Amino acid sequence: MTVSTPLWMMGAPGSPYTRKMRAILRYRLIPFRMIVQGSEAHLARPRPKVGLLPTFYLPDESGQEVAVTDSTPLLRRLEEEFEGRSVIPTDPVVAFLDALLEDFADEWLTKAMFHYRWHYRADIDKAASILPLWQKVDVADEEVKPLSDFIAKRQIERLWVVGSNDTTAPVIESSYQRLLHLFDAHLQTQPFLMGHRPGSSDFGFLGQLTCLVLFDPTPAAIAVETAPRIYAWVEWAEELSGMEPKEEDWITRDAIPPTLRALLGEVGRVYAPFLLANAEAVEQGAERVETTIDDRPWTQKPFPYQAKCLRWLREHHASLSADDRARVDGILSGTGCEALFA
Ligand SMILES: N[C@@H](CCC(=O)N[C@@H](CS)C(=O)NCC(=O)O)C(=O)O
């Protein structure tokens, strides 16, 4: 069913996936209307199966408006519905690397995002005081206070979902710091992960980094001190409506930048072992994921959605032609990511 514009989206500025999708709509010049959670416009619309931010309202096969979530399939549906300014690289080999890095941002970098927002006092206080005002700004202070307390309590209780705890904090924090360094090195030679035009992975990174680098004080201070270029990138890349992308702007399979392979090395170092241990725990119905990541202990509740992420990545890998798969495997060899597809 073709969608009509403007697209309607419910989201919030504090949500990394909202920022990811909003930046894609802006870059792709797709007209949209954004509404906030809890507003009249939101309450009048259908509810998704799982209430997540952002939620899009799109027609189903019969033309009926339904609520749809999950940025990864959503942005791919928009590719089918709207032509031009694609965020999926044309070469299937490059598109695979893009999908892998997008998944890493959505599912691993978000651990840092959620961890930093709800772990240290300064970040908790800032988020608790501002997040409720993003639902409605014209309210008296006494009305905000209970909402602040409610949101902070609920989110801190949910830290286990992403695997942030005292055991895993050092792994998450050092991965974030390495990532800043590696991404900064990459950006010194080209403006996007995917070359001179952005891919879905760029928007995945962007979404999480709007929180980490622009909003939450602890990770933002680290970024501004060690990688000011990334701060500049995030503010700039949120609004790419004026760019004129060309086919030759994508990186090519024959010249994968060493700095991109170094980033894939971070994916292999932390995210690959996590995905494998998590999928095994989910499969065995285990109470906990207990593994070693980056030579340090890792423990968290199993996360069924992320077992699906591994399955999707494997299906994508298997769907490549034999030639393309061999090229991908060659690029991933030695990064640690190859373990995902062994
Ligand atoms: N995989 C989803 C994740 C979306 C998601 O987890 N959104 C968060 C906020 S950024 C959420 O709505 N969490 C539940 C809640 O806050 O109630 C996507 O890519 O859109």
* Heterogens: glutathione
**What oligomeric state do the depicted chains represent?**
single chain
| Tally of individual domains | 2
- The pLDDT mean sits at 97
For the biggest β-sheet, the strand order reads 2-1-3-4
- What is the CATH class designation of the largest domain? Mainly Alpha
Based on secondary structure, the structural category is alpha+beta
Beta-strand fraction estimate: 5-15%
Q: What is the CATH topology assignment of the largest domain?
A: Glutathione S-transferase Yfyf (Class Pi), Chain A, domain 2
The low-confidence parts are: none
Number of helices: 14
Number of strands: 6
Tell me the series of helices and strands, N- to C-terminal. EHEHEEHHHHHHHHHHEEHH
* Main sheet specs: 4 strands, mixed
**C-alpha termini separation:** 38 Å
Please tell me how large the radius of gyration is: 20 Å
Q: How does the overall form come out from the CA principal axes?
A: globular
Instruction: Write the CATH architecture name of the largest domain.
Output: Up-down Bundle
Helical residue percent band: 55-70%
